[in-house]
Amino acid sequence: MSFMESWPVSLKVITFILALIIGIFCLVKFCDIFVDASCSIAKKLHISELIIGLTIVAMGTSCPELAVSVSDSISTLINGGNANVAIGNVVGSNICNLLLVLGASCLFTPIIVKKSICKKEYPFLIGISILLVIFVIFFGLNSFVGEYVVTRIEGIIFVLLIGVYIYLLIKSNKTNNDEQINEEVSEIKEIKLWKSIILVIVGCAGIIFGGEAVVFGAKGIALEISDAAHLNHDLAESLIGLTIVAVGTSLPELVTSVVASKKGQNELALGNVIGSNIFNTLFVLGISATVNPLTSGSQIVVDVIFMLVATLLVFVFALKGKIGKVHGYILLCLYLGYLAYLVTRTII
Q1: Residue range 168-179, pLDDT digits in tens
Q2: CATH code of the domain containing 311
Q3: How many structural domains compose the chain?
Q4: Rounded Cα–Cα distance for residues 71 and 138 (Å)
Q5: 218: closest CA among 321, 48, 319, 68?
Q6: Are 140 and 150 in contact (CB under 8 A)?
Q7: Which residues, in sequence order, are CB contacts of 302 under 8 Å at separation 6+?
């Protein structure tokens, strides 16, 4: 950002905000293009709809988070500093999915919870959330610099676990013949092979550009806020990552869940959130940490613990078989309280 040093502060802020908005728009739009084109190619190669749904489509929902976090990871590798946006984006997106997305969905129609989710996918999500807390708190502290680190080895472990998760999903769904996944994939239009390849390349380019733009905008806004208000830069960066960037990259899940809920079709809302959070934690955080160990200030400890608490709370609600309107209000109030805490800790 050295080329902007002579710019007026107001022009810098406008540029950073525009970069953030354009970046999020590009991520959402080009992720859809990439997923549809990739699925079309997979169909041409006669790959089963089940495998396409559980890999390409499932990972596609985490493409925005992946682009942002990997971009920030590479940025810190080149320029130094902490990866507050990378970690904050993943943790913030998970919290946003659990409290904001589910909370908003419950206000229109209660979410009916399948028993199989509470027996299989959700315990797996709790397990990896606990593992992340252990990695950050017990193995992550670098006492020399007073920072917390998600190491490259831990990143590789997460990447291996996502492979195990996908294998178990495919094995389980082959037995149960999940019609919902097959239907979702069959709705994706087949495109000519040459056109699909071009769209995959265009989608990748758009995703990379969007990720770079979001990180550029987020870090720039954090820098201007911290300089203008004399705040801790790490806390300001973490605030942007946990809120604006996290909500922005979770917009597809939020819009889809609320629209489905209004139509009374939100029985899949919980499953989608669980799947998204699993991929965020293992796939996004894993690849980002494998590229470059992710460092953050001590504030990350509170954030990952709160993420675990939110995960456990929703699980308690889900065990009752239905997540209703009262639960929705509780989740939304918790999210607003968490946002208030983030702002307070940054200012004070």
Answers
A1: 877 776 655 555
A2: 1.20.1420.30
A3: 1
A4: 27
A5: 68
A6: yes
A7: none
Nearest to 202 by CA among 344, 57, 26: 26
Q: Whole domain around residue 310: which residue ranges? A: 2-347
Lowest mean pLDDT among 62-76, 108-122, 155-169, 258-272: 258-272
- Would you state the structure tokens that stand for residue 12, as one six-digit string? 């810098």
Question: What pTM, to 2 d.p., does this model score?
Answer: 0.87
Q: Taking every pair of C-alpha atoms in the chain, what is the biggest distance, in angstroms?
A: 63
Count of all residues that appear for the chain in the document = 348
pLDDT tens string 67-107: 999 998 998 888 877 788 889 999 999 999 999 999 998 88
